[in-house]
Design goal:
- The structure is a single chain.
- The protein has two helices and no strands.
- The protein has 49 residues and is mainly alpha-helical.
- It has one domain.
- α1 packs across α2.
- The protein is elongated.
Length: 49
């Protein structure tokens, strides 16, 4: 049972690392769109307070 939990955590870690790498690549390729998205997100957060 413990081995299965460890394996699942290892797989989840790999998936998270792959996702983070892909997001970073997208941000590097499209910094203007990333900045727009961040501005919208921050504006929405500011409106909800």
């Amino acid at each position: 049972m413990l081995d299965a939990v460890i394996n699942v955590r290892r797989i989840e870690g790999r998936i998270n690392a792959a996702t983070t790498k892909r997001v970073a690549e997208l941000l590097q390729r499209h910094p203007d769109l990333a900045a727009q998205a961040m501005r919208r997100w921050l504006a929405q957060r500011g409106d909800s307070r």
